[in-house]
C-alpha cells in the first residue's frame, strides 16, 4: 500500500505504518491537543469530553496508541455514529501519556466535574457546591 502524503515532506508511506488509516495525520499540527491535561486519567476523560462535544451521538468503537515519526504519542480513536458511519480522531497525548494521578490533579478533576454537573443543572451538584463553598477558607 502506498500513500502520497504531500502535507508532510519528511514522511513517506513507510513512516505511516503506525497508523491504521494511512490517510491519517502525519503533520503534528493535524493532531488534536488537550491543553491543561497533566495525567493519563485526566487525558482519557478529556478525550471523551472532546469527542462528545464535537461528535454528539457517536460512541467509541476502538482506541489505539502509537508513536509517530516525530516522536509523539498519539491516540487514534475510532468513533461510530448512530447511522453506522465511522470517524477517526487523532489526539497528541505526548505530554500526559503514562503520567500518574496526584492528589492535587484528582481534586482538580473532581472540581471540574462538579462545575460541569452544576452547569447541567444537577441539583445534588448545586447543593454540594454550596456546602463546599461554605467551608472554603476566606482570605
Strand content: 15-25%
State the major sheet: 3 strands, antiparallel
SSE order, as H and E?
HEEEHH
Alpha carbon gyration radius: 19 Å
Mean pLDDT: 76
User: How helix-rich are the residues, as a percent range?
Assistant: 25-40%
The shape is: flat
Number of helices: 3
Structural class: alpha+beta
**Low-pLDDT runs:** 1-23
**Major sheet: arrangement of strands:** 1-2-3
Q: How are the SSEs placed, and which strands pair?
A:
Elements: H1 40-54, E1 59-67, E2 73-80, E3 86-92, H2 103-119, H3 123-134
Antiparallel strand pairs: 1-2, 2-3
Question: How would you describe what is shown here?
Answer:
- By secondary structure, the chain is α+β, with helices and mostly antiparallel strands.
- The protein folds into two domains: 1-100, no CATH class; 102-139.
- The chain is 32% helix and 17% strand.
- It contains three helices and three strands, in the order αβββαα.
- It has a three-stranded antiparallel β-sheet with strand order 1-2-3, with helices on one face.
- β1 and β2 (73-80) form a beta hairpin.
- α2 (103-119) packs across α3.
- The N and C termini lie far apart (64 Å).
- Mean pLDDT is 76; it is low at 1-23.
Question: Can you give keywords for this protein?
Answer:
139 residues, alpha+beta, 3-stranded antiparallel beta sheet, 3 helices, flat, disordered N terminus
In short:
The protein has 139 residues and is an alpha+beta fold.
